[in-house]
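Q: what does this look like with L-homoserine bound?
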Amino acid sequence: MKIAILGYGTIGSGVYNVFTTNAEIVEKKAGEKIEVKYVLDLRDFPGDPAENVLVHDYKVIVNDPEVECVVETMGGDKPAYTFVKECLLAGKSVTTSNKEMVANHGPELVQIAKDKNTNFFFEASVGGAIPIIRPINESFSADEILEIRGIINGTTNYILTKMDHEGTDYETALAEAQDKGYAERNPEADVEGYDPARKIAILSSIACGRHVDYNDIYTEGITKLTAFDFEYARHMGKAIKLIASMRKEGKDVFASVCPMLIDTESPLFTVNDVFNGILVNGKYSGTIMFYGRGAGSLPTASAVAADVVEIVRNRGNNELIIWSDEKQPVTDRLEEKNDFFVRVASFNKTKAREAFGEVEDIKPLNGEYAFIVRGITEAQYESAASRVRIINKLRLLNA
Ligand code: HSE
């Protein structure tokens, strides 16, 4: 099979690397040779092994009937979406690592592949090297997924781990994550939580079979965390992790991304550095954990390359992915119950106790008053928090 790679950045060059250095094994697994016929990028790469197959115009790829499979690793919505849609309409299969495009256009692109009897795969869009889309789509197909909860952004997990274990400041840890090729082109997508919001929207859509819009997901990043939050967390024997979750409760579907305090008993407690950890709870299966490298060139490329092999094996056969464009409503965040850890100035202690009612005191730091309030709705929290100035708050994830 002849393939083309769109975008020769961190992931695209990793995919090229996998197909050239691991060609023999890939050929055995696929049952035929896989040849990278084109690499598309606006830039030139003099002296690079991909130099001879480099093209600058995507039409060369769309119009070449020999190319049966296209790998999209450009990232971002447009022009990636336009190129991918044209390739699918031209009868080619596509695999992508691009969560922004998948979260925005998943139902449409899945449908085109179905109509054309080809495949649109996006395993690498969530969890880097971790198999998660295919297990949710296939291994849980006779089950009902009740909850997905996890750490699905490598950059922020790397930053939080460095800040917690090594006392590294935020900027230094972010720069290191960028150097290692983990971060998005615009790191705001990582640190403000937009990237994990798109990823949990993708997982939730596959789990529900209907489109979960990431704009409906409550999203809070890690930029407000300070060294004091980590000190409190250590003192309570907990870690701070950016948690993305989707939970069904009766007819409600709750979804959110926010930093949370994690107990040592939680399997997510030990998910550190660039690693991702995802817990999927099925009605019949119980909880299953997925763990591995969530970002980086070769780990992500390994998932993209495996999709290509799956495309070769499924020539002329569309692997069913149910992701209808019908919207899956996400229940109003204000109705969700949570436990909160809250910090206020010590002179606000009485006011805070009046506003929040029954609370558990936490040993204070730095002239503050700190407490935990349990089992209140987000609406109740908002109402109490409007009556006293909050320094910071964190939700608790109970094991
Ligand atoms: N910026 C993303 C992360 C890349 O850090 O998880 C992998 O999706």
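Residues 128, 153-155, 182-184, 190, 195, 294-295 surround L-homoserine (CB under 6 Å). The chain has a mean pLDDT of 96.
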